[in-house]
Amino acid sequence: MAGTTVPFTPHTPYAPMVQLTLACLALAAGVACLATRRRQLDRPGRTAVWGGLILTTPVFAMGATGLPAYFVTLAAGAGLESATGLAHVLLSTALTAVLVLVALSYRRRLAGTCPRCGQRHTGGHDAPLLHPRATTAPRRTRKLAYLLMCGMLPWAGAKTVWTLGGDAFGITAEKWKESNSGGSDAAKALAEAGIDVTVLAAGLGFSLVAGLMYPWGQVFPRWTLILSGRRVPRLLPLIPAWLTGFGLSVYGVFLVIYAPLAAFGVLPAPKLDTDLGATLSGTLWLAAIGGTAFGGLGFALLAAARSYAARSRPVCASAAAGGGGSGGADSGGSRRRSPVSGPPS
Fold first, then answer.
1. Residue 119, CB-side half-sphere exposure with 13 Å CA sphere
2. Measuring CA to CA, which residue among 194, 237, 196 is closest to residue 214?
3. pLDDT under 70 in the chain at which residues?
4. Is the pTM above the cut of 0.90?
5. Sign, Cα dihedral of 28, 30, 32, 34
6. Helix, strand, or coil here: 285?
7. DSSP string covering 198-223
8. d(Cα 197, Cα 73) in Å, to the nearest integer?
9. What local confidence, expressed as pLDDT, does residue 201 receive?
10. Do 340 and 329 touch, CB atoms closer than 8 A?
11. What is the predicted pLDDT for the residue at 138?
12. What is the DSSP letter of 231?
C-alpha cells in the first residue's frame, strides 16, 4: 500500500497484487494451523486443513529460494542489495519451516502417534525429549553424497580457469573479468587469488553436506569454544539443507534436460551473452555442467539431510522407557537404533 519495493529478482519487484495475495495466503495458513489444534474435526474440516497447508507451503517455499543468493552476496562482502527483499526471504523461510512442522505434527496426531516424536507411547506429550548419540551416516549415504558432489568439478574447474587467466567454453578470462568488474572488493581479491566467490559458496555447501553426515554436525566440535560439546539444534542445519537442496536440485535437473534439447532444436536456444563473446555450443555446455553442479549439490544436500533427520530424531522419555525406540532407522539402510543419551531437554 505504501509503494515499498520488494524485489522478486534483482530487476523485477513483486507486483502489489501479488503481495496482497501472499498476505491472504499467510492468513489462510494461520487459520489452518489453528484448526489443527482441534481434536474433533469432521472429514470436510480435515480436508480443508490439509488443503490450506498443502496450498500455502509450496508458495512460501518458493519465496524462500532466494536465501542462498543473499547469503553468498553478504559472505562476499558485496553488501545488502535490498533490506525489504532479505526480510521477505527470511519471513518466507521461517513460515515454510513452521508450516512443515505443523503439518508433520498434525499427521502424527491423526495417526494416533505422539505429535512430538512420532512414537506410540502412554502418558502425555509433555515428557522430556531424549536425543540419540551423535553418529556417522552409513557408508552408502556417504558414497552417494560424495558421488553427487563430483558433479561440481567441471563447473568449479571452469570458474577457476577463468580466475587464473585461462579460456574455457569460448569465453576468455578478460571478458569474464570484465563482466564481473562490478563486484565487491572482497570478490575481486578472491578472484586475484584464483578463487571464484560462487566456488567458495559451493565449498560452504560441501561443508554443510559433511556436517550432516558426521558427528560434528550433531554436537559442536572443540574449536567452537563456548559451544563445544553442546548439542546442535536439529533444525539449524536441516532447514537450509532442505530449502537450498530443493531449489538447487530442481534448477539442476532443468538445466541438464534443457541443454541437449536446445542443442537438437527441440527447445529454443538460449540468448547469447554478447559481452562475454559466448558461442551457442559453449553456452549449452555451460548450462549442462552448471546443471550437474547445481543438481549434484542439491541432491547431495537432500540425501545427507534425510540421513541426518533420521539419526538425530529425538524421542519422548516415556517412549524410550516403554521400549518405543528412537525411530532412528537411517535412510542409508541401517536398522540399528541409536541409544539415547545426554540430559533431557
1. 25
2. 237
3. 10, 72-73, 75-79, 123-125, 179-195, 274-275, 277, 319-345
4. no
5. negative
6. helix
7. HHHHHHHHHHHHHHHHSGGGTB--GG
8. 9
9. 78
10. no
11. 95
12. B
Q: What is the 3-state secondary structure (H, E, C) of 148-191?
A: HHHHHHHHHHHHHHHHCCCCECCECHHHHHHHCCCCCHHHHHHH
**Amino acid occupying residue 160:** T
Strand stretches in the chain, DSSP E: 7-9, 12-13, 129-132, 315-316, 340-341
The pLDDT, as a whole number, for residue 281 is 85
Backbone angles phi, psi at 126, to 5 degrees: -115, 15
First to last CA, the chain: 44
Q: To which residue does cell 489462510 refer?
A: 28
List phi, psi (to 5°) of 197.
-65, -30
One-letter amino acid of 53 = L
Q: b/e for 235-271, b at 16 or more Cβ within 10 A?
A: eebbbbbbbbbbbbbebbeebbebbeebbeeeeeeee
Count of C-beta atoms within a 10 Å radius of residue 327 = 17
Q: C-alpha distances in angstroms, 221 versus 211, 215, 217, 252, 345?
A: 11, 9, 8, 33, 20
| 3-state helix vs strand vs coil in the chain, percent to 5 | 60, 5, 35
Q: Is 254 left (phi over 0), alpha (psi -120 to 50) or beta?
A: alpha
Dihedral of CA atoms 23, 26, 31, 32 in degrees, nearest 10, equals 150
Distances (CA, A) of 35 to 44, 51, 58, 104, 332: 12, 12, 19, 14, 36
